[in-house]
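Troubleshooting: if your tokenizer reports a length mismatch, compare against these two reference records.
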Amino acid sequence: MPDVHPVRGRPLGARFLALAACLVLAACAGMPERAGPVAPGDTRFMTETLDWLVPRAMARAAVPGVVVAVTDENGVLWSRAYGQGAAGQPLDTGARFRVGSVSKLLTATEIMRRVDRGDIGLDAPVSTVLPGVVREEAGRPVTVRALLAHHGGLSPNHLRGMFVAEPQPLAAVDALVRGTPPLAPPQTRYIYSNLGYAVLGRMIERASGQPFAAAMDHALLAPLGMTASAFERTATARGPVVTGHRRGEPVPPVGLRDDPAGGLVTDAADLARFLRFVLNGGRGPDGRPLMRPATLDQMFQPQYAGLPLNFGRRLGLDWLLAGIDVPGVGPVAWHGGMTPGFHALVAVSRPHKLGVVVLANDEGAAELVKTVAAKALELAREAKTGIAPPPPPPVTEPAEQALPPAVLAALSGDYAIFGERVTMTAAGNRLKTTALGRAVDLIPVAGDRFAVHTAVLGLFDVALPGTAVRFATVDGRRYGVVEGREAPLVFERLEDGPIPDAWRGRLGTYTGSDGDDMLTIHRFDLTIDRGVLTARVRSSSRTFGYDKGEGSVVLTPLSDDAAAAMGGDTLQGGPLVAGWQDGRPVLRFSGYTLVRTDGGRAE
């Protein structure tokens, strides 16, 4: 599932930037060194290095337990468990975890198996299997490919009823999708959507005539020998599951309505079996083909690469194709997953016939699982071949380039990043801003890029290696793009423009009337702030462990009755929709109803 605040869309992983820096430093200070060349098949240096790295990373991130498994096309090469599954209970490599959005890879694989057989058309409209569920647009249908690659234009989530102990049947998603306006025309931009994968799960149900979990077990999990795995909808899973944690403290298990998007419960050995299916060109453990190699290859081909609003994003059919570059191995395909209490990651190098699984029982382990996965693949390639990785290239900071003051002044102004308003000002030859609670300087370097500098401990001005910002204009709208992460991070320039009278007439104070564990909205002030429609929100989520958090979200009207947040993957529940209830004006957000509590305007 996405690593975000459910209302503002702000990445929870941002708080772990310090952890990433610590891990980089750890790689240079005190890590074991080779006593000599590593012989093919010798995993001793791999064991020594990971036994040094993983416990230190766990301690820094307050992660209680981690399981790592590395496989090639023939079997598991190396596996290890670290830490505890619950207080006083040591983990073992057979422990079962909830793996969040890693589940999507298996849902996507089963869809592609049905494409391979001709049961489903990859570029056919979803309506050919599920008529009347998604809104069609002339010339741009919502296709199966679009949903697999998160280009269907659907909302990221329908939050109400999403994480509950006993969710509604998956079929309830049909009405939720049908009743929610899309955020964008299909096939025009990337919008990560759990709802889209719930729709794909409904297609599997319709095509198989079985409930989703049973269909997946019969068609994919059992043929792959994944006997410890199951898609679970309820908080009470079949069989033991490791205790999840948040900031090192146990969290109760929750169910998930949209189980095709994040409901898989599994262990490291079973996920390694899935990776061997990938490494063996779509063949199962008995050598029987479950998918033609050419169909599997399509899952690793870049999708919608030329769309201007994708800003260079590289993804396949759910596999991420950029963001992890392993010395001696190169870029790998991967996918992470977060669900309350857990974080997971799988990665695969098809050219080198290597894959890795990292499972953690704390939802704050995003940087940990990524760093450990990359290091494990680097060491595994050396252990398998006896070839040491090349030395890292020297880190050189690009030289500062002077820009005319008029250019910097034109880039200055207000932007929306994750829905929050930030102000960028020119100071000397720099652009200065504060984003996600951190002071940031942008320094012009070669071409149209800006190096990103920030202060460490309030004392040292350091560049974030490999990270740059560029500015672009698409369809008359101005954007900034942070490059060098696993995917582009986009923020949008706020421009003065007319606000429809319909939205001006709704300005005022609202409160949520139907909160639950997932989200309670205590206060929602719809206002105009410096010429821009803005919501000031106070909300709580027991599911995600915050109480009466406050923030502002910059909105852009989509129509007289719908508005969406600006700047990146924001408002994880989708659009804000105006309506009426019992003769009173209300706003609806992701299944929640906001009732007007005053008659005044807040302009």
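Reference record two:
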Amino acid sequence: MQSISAIDRRHFLASLLASGSLPFLDSIAEAEEAAASSGGDALVRWWPVQKKPASVIRTTLIEDLPVVHGEDGQQSQGTFGALSMLLQSLSGLAAQAVNEERSDELIWIETNHPAYRRWYRETIARTGIVDQGQLDVWKLLARCQQRDLVKGYVLMRLDRSEGAEHQVRDKIDESVNVATALCGVLGAILVDESLEEQIRELGFEKLADARQMTLADCFETYRDQFNRSLILAQDPRKPFMRELAIAHRCLVIHGQAKPVPQILRWLKPLSSVLGWNAGDEGAQVRQFSEYGHVLTVSDWARGIPLLSVAYDEQNLPKVGGIDPAKIDWSWQGPCHAMVMSDGDNVQWALGDFTETSRREFWDDPTHGWLPFSWTTPTIPLAQAAPVAADYLAKTRRRNVSLVEFGGGYIFLDCFGRRRDEADLLDQYAIRLAAWMKATDTRVLSLLMWDIDSEEAQRAYQTLARRMPDLVGIIAIEYSPYEGGEGRVFWVDNGQGSQLPVMTCRYALWAQSNRPNTGSPSEVAAMVRRDLTAATKPEDQLAWTIVHAWSWFRDANRPEEEEVRQQGAERRGARRGHVVAHWCQEKLGDDVRPVSIEELLWRLRMAKDPERTRQAIQSEE
């Protein structure tokens, strides 16, 4: 999904469950009004709420699922096969039954990924849910059948179209997406053609044939039964997150053409879009934003029904930050911060970001040697997988900043353009502000379509007034990230002070061929050149975005650092935190590396020393 040639980006009041016997919030506006009436401190959850079960049953490893042979000679196996889809539907029906108090047991689809194994152990330990052991897919199906969780099956066909994932491929088969939506409202399991005979022999009845139904047909027929505050965007090839869609009876889309615009308008404003859509990245994020919805990248995420059970509003993660009184204010020279990209990505934060054999990001051995900053989805994680959010907060190094990535992947300068409601931006700011305060998150990162437009300025001002205690905001232009050229916008926080909105000036980005971007040695050279030559204190401060997916070699000359991205690891290249570390080491003694939080404090001191000192004193 990641590409180097283009820029990659990838309670409700106690109930976000859409239908059936579950209570449902009639309007998102009610939640926002509740937050406003409480002084803006009420926490509005926008990830779906899962009730706690008494126990959980684990499947055998998804990576070890057996091969299934269809009548047409086609095979499906492992993570992306027919049995995987079946497991997703069983897990979804189990979660739905727990929410509706028809059952007391969830299903965990076992994986060998070390991070997910950690999250499972910690969730079980925190909640006291009883682990009932493992069952293979057929024994698990029999268990669900005995518990009357399955009313029948929906027939679908695995997509075997040619082309890359998350593209609008020719002859794509979207029946699994239609089937997923139907399973939620019909109480059915996902059954591929290759499994139908076996499923019928077990006594299950076919409730629908998704091969004969379009998404538009599905939407028009069952729209009154679907969740109006949640949808899943997912490639038909991928099984992940379907358990959540089924549990909460939501539609599953792929692409931006009809009936997607009609569905987005039908959804209540400020709805959650989980997963990742097809087609151009900017176009899909802009479409969601213009209809007033918030995308959270999560198409590879796993096990959210169980992981979200650990949510405890009284024990939210506390991100924290630096003590500005302990900044070395005697240093009056240039300062520079490095900030990792892609912090909107919940699936990454749950998986390879925290733990892999390559140790590229949070688990990189050099992490913490020098000041560094990470954009992260801490607030979505606090709702979807609290143990993961806690882990980031508790293992944060003292010289490291955690920056909330906007609460999701969203262009706030385009937000709500296609809706009639006039105050969606302010409602969103109220919602996000409560979470920023509750998690003690002090810096906010925004990705904007047009970073210095009138709409962007209005977004900065709205957020500043709703979050007056922020240290500051950092802003990134969608294309290119460094398009703001380091400019700073000052906005009134409504309490007599101005907050900085500091744009990205440089990008550590492979083969970009753009000004102010390049390899570790190139970026270090530009930073030294520009900041040491500056005469005004505020011009001696800048930050660089570190493209998470760019590979480089450790060398002293750009031509030796740059490497062809495909297969780069085999040629000794590295990516992630260590690449930023190489760049920082090349800055020399004339430019001091700092966290983004310290950089913003220094920027405020340069702008208004008196008010900044007062703010620092209030922090003590």
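Descriptive notes for reference record two:
- The first helix runs from residue 28 to 37.
- The CA atoms of residues 291 and 420 lie 10 Å apart.
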